[in-house]
Amino acid sequence: MNMTCDQFRDLLIDHVEGELIVDVQELFEFHRTRCPNCGAYLESYHYTIRITRKLPGPPLPAEVEARLRESLRPHLGGGD
Ligand SMILES: [Zn+2]
Fold first, then answer.
1. What is the pTM (predicted TM-score) of this model?
2. Ligand 1 centre and the CA of 53: distance in Å?
3. Each residue of 29-52: pLDDT tens digit?
């Protein structure tokens, strides 16, 4: 069974939260290793999560967050 890119993106948040069941996680990893687009997408997503969560003190300034979203936009929607 294969996972589509749409499914991959739908599961992304659950994956990051560690909430995927093992079977789904395996499909997810399989797709990630086979699909360069989704691999890159996941990487940038992880990166964003890391810097937004690890920053001490108050939440990200809106301006910084907007810039992050902007940098991720090419990966969102479209493509396959
Ligand atoms: Zn994909």
1. 0.61
2. 26
3. 999 999 999 999 999 988 888 888
- Is 51 a domain residue? yes
Backbone angles phi, psi at 52, to 5 degrees: -75, -30
Q: 7 C-alpha vs ligand 1 centroid, how far in Å? A: 9
Here the tokens at position 40 are: 């890159």
Cα(62) to ligand 1 centroid in Å equals: 30
Q: Establish if 70 belongs to a structural domain.
A: yes
Closest of 52, 32, 51 to residue 42, by C-alpha: 32
**Domain containing 21: what range?**
5-74
Please give the distance, rounded to the nearest whole angstrom, from the Cα atom of residue 72 to the centre of ligand 1.
16
Q: Across the chain, what does the average pLDDT equal?
A: 85
* Per-residue tokens: 66: 């907007």
79 located within any domain = no
